[in-house]
Structures are given as C-alpha cells and as structure tokens.
Amino acid sequence: MKTIRKPELLSPAGDMARLKAAIQFKADAVYLGGTVFGMRSAPENFDEAGLEHAVALAHENGVKVYLTANVLPRSDELAALPRFLSHAKDCGVDALIISDLGVLDYAKQYAPGVAIHMSTQTGIVNYAAANACYRLGARRIVTARELSLAEIKTLRKNIPEDMEIECFVHGAMCVSFSGRCLLSNYLTGRDANRGACAQPCRWKYALTEEKRPGQFFPIEDAEDGGTYILNARDLCMIEHIPELVDAGVSSFKIEGRAKSEYYVAVITNAYRKAIDAYCADPEGFALPDWLREEVTRVSYRDYCTGFYFDDPGEAAQISFRGGYDRNWDVMAVVERWENGVAHCTQRNRFFAGDTLEVLTPQAVPFPVTAREICNAEGELVQATNHPMMAFSFPCETPLPVGAILRKRREES
C-alpha cells in the first residue's frame, strides 16, 4: 500500500466562535490574528486575554495555533512589536506567520523557540528563496499563490526535509501578486498590506471620457451589465487532494478569517472528510459526491483551481459577476439533545413542518423534520420568529451539541 504523510488541515479563526467551529469540525491547526500586526483588521480578532484563552482552548483539543504577524509595519510601529511577540510566546502559540524580515529578526529575539512560518506575502516562488528563509530560521513557507503544482513539487525536492510547505486550497483569491496590492490604497486610503483592504477589485467598473464628466460607458461582459475584470473566482481544490499530497504540500490552508462561523464549519468539515478518506485508501480514493456538493452549501463565487493547473492567460480566473452564490441558510444551532427532544438557538426563521439538514462532524449530513416547534416556555409556535430565540422540537436522532441545522433557500 502507498505510504503517505498525512497533510495538516489549517483553518481560519477570525474570532472565538469561528475558532470553536474549527476545533469542533476537526481542524489540525488554526491561524488567527491579534488586534495588531495582522493582515485582517475586519474580523474581531483576539486581544491579549482573548489570545490566551484561544491558545488554551485549542491546545486542550489538540489543535495548534499560528498567530499572524504578517503586516509590513512602519518604523514608528516597531516599538510595540516586542510586547506583541513576547506575549505570543508566553501564550504558547505554536508559530508566527511573518512576511517582513525585520519582524522575523524581532521574533527570534523576543519569541525565541516559537516556529516561524513565512507568509504568502513574502512571495516565495523558488527554492533559493525558500532556502534563504530556512537559513534565517523559518521552518515553513506559505508559497506564493501563483505557483503550479509542478513548481511546488520542484521546490519540495530542493529544500530541507524538515522545511514544510503550506498552500491555500480553498477560498477567496486576490488578483494581485501574493496579496501585494495598492489598489485599495489609491482608491480608499486603506492599506491592503496592513490589514485594511477595501476589496476594490470586487467593484463594478465602467469607462468615462475626460470631456464627459459623470457620464459612464458600461462594458457589458456580465449578465447584469458592467465588468468585473478584477474580480477573481474562489479557489477550490477538494477534488485534487492526491495531487496536492503528491506535490509535497504539508499543510492545506483554508482562506477565510473574515468568513462566518458556518463557513468555517462547513469547509473544515468537508476537507477533513476528504483528507481522511484519501489517507485511509490512497490507491482507491474517489471523492464522495456529497463532499463535492458540500462546498457549495456556503456563500461562494464560481470555483476554480487557481494557478495549480491552468495558465491564467488561457483560463482566466475571472468571475464575471459581482456577488456570491448562496443557496443555503443556517436555521439553528443545537444546544443540547435529551429524551428525544432537540433544544436549539435560532439563526433564521423557519416553520413547523420544515425539513432541515443536520451538519455534524460525525456523519454525512442528514435530514430531520421539525414536525412541531416549542418556544422556551414550552408553548407550541408556528415558526422561529425571533432572532436567537430558544426553541425545541421532537427529534428521534440524538444530535450533538453544536450541530448545525440548515435549509436550502427556496427558488424565487
């Protein structure tokens, strides 16, 4: 039987709820940010006390924590860096994700012994750069997103055996080189290299002519008019687990610290099941149909395989629509199950008699019908009308705490 090294599944954790979702749905590691020095300023992130709690919770469940320190800090910000790094070490974070050489040098001084991972923002596209990072103390590189699997395989063969390769396998893609973009700076004053990108690449554009101010000339290459030539599709590599492993990828990274708790749960669960199935039987592996469908049960743009296989000049990864596909909604989360009754907290309105789909880490998603619904006082109600209301419904199948109840949107 073919022997393989099982890849790590690395999930995003934008706040404590998303961290718990990643843990519940069996991520091997999570990456998260503090309130400073990280590349995502929009999520809640973790203050000092929150980081301590997050690392403790993750480690209790056998999950590693990688802390982002991947912004490009200006000179006047460096004074705050030693405290940030020292606190990270004291918390017990397993690695620091770094893109700036100065931050790397500080990390070796103020967080000795903490592993260093070089961020995708470093733009590593060859083994010479990877080996240089190794000599500087890094033990993992997050490759530039522009590399093909063939290039990653070449890189793997020419770096030390104990240097790991981490690659994005799922989520939003940036049109700039490895996230190095100035478009947001120019148009909004928000620095994309300091965690504040306004994502102007997702906007709808038209032409103007200098002698006709305010008069727009649409470029209609999209269904709703206008053009989204800077709007990338989403990456999805769940059908290509064997190729990623064969290329030597050590860690499968899911993009999405700004995505929802539900997104983290669904995508983590899907890749967990796919990786486990492949490792259990590499020779006979075939992706189950339900996993192929599962990644479409979140908000997503048209999927593609990024740069791993296609020449972008021949198969441009452009999404010609401005929005997301979203066909499923979370209805509730299970708080407990006892004596044939599921006790839940509402997330969206649904009605007695509706059939819901249950997502758990233990099983393939399955249906349950809420034949009748009771509110917190035990009174029968026709619908879960109130945000975050407590309710219950009869359910013969035991449901674990944290199970997600969802429903397909009705076609209009």
Keywords:
TIM Barrel; Elongation Factor Tu (Ef-tu), domain 3; alpha/beta; 20 strands; globular; eight-stranded antiparallel sheet; 412 residues; eight-stranded parallel barrel
Give a brief rundown of this model.
This protein has 412 residues and is α/β, with parallel strands linked by helices. The protein has helices at residues 16-24, 48-60, 81-91, 101-110, 127-135, 149-157, 183-188, 241-247, 261-280, 289-294, and strands at 8-12, 29-33, 64-69, 95-98, 115-118, 140-142, 164-172, 206-207, 217-218, 234-236, 251-254, 303-304, 328-338, 341-346, 355-359, 366-369, 373-375, 380-381, 390-394, 404-408.
Characterise the protein shown here.
The chain has helices at 16-24, 48-60, 81-91, 101-110, 127-135, 149-157, 183-188, 241-247, 261-280, 289-294; strands spanning 8-12, 29-33, 64-69, 95-98, 115-118, 140-142, 164-172, 206-207, 217-218, 234-236, 251-254, 303-304, 328-338, 341-346, 355-359, 366-369, 373-375, 380-381, 390-394, 404-408. An 8-stranded parallel β-barrel has the order 1-2-3-4-5-6-7-11, surrounded by 5 helices. Strands 16-15-20-13-14-19-17-18 form an 8-stranded antiparallel beta sheet, with no helix packed on it. Strands 8-9 form a two-stranded antiparallel sheet. It folds into 2 domains: 8-177 and 232-304, Aldolase class I (TIM Barrel, Alpha-Beta Barrel); 328-408, Beta Barrel (Elongation Factor Tu (Ef-tu), domain 3). It is α/β, with parallel strands linked by helices and 412 residues long. Helix 1 packs parallel to helix 9 (261-280), helix 3 (81-91) packs across helix 4 and helix 6 (149-157) packs parallel to helix 8. The longest helix has 20 residues, at 261-280. The chain is built from 10 helices and 20 strands.
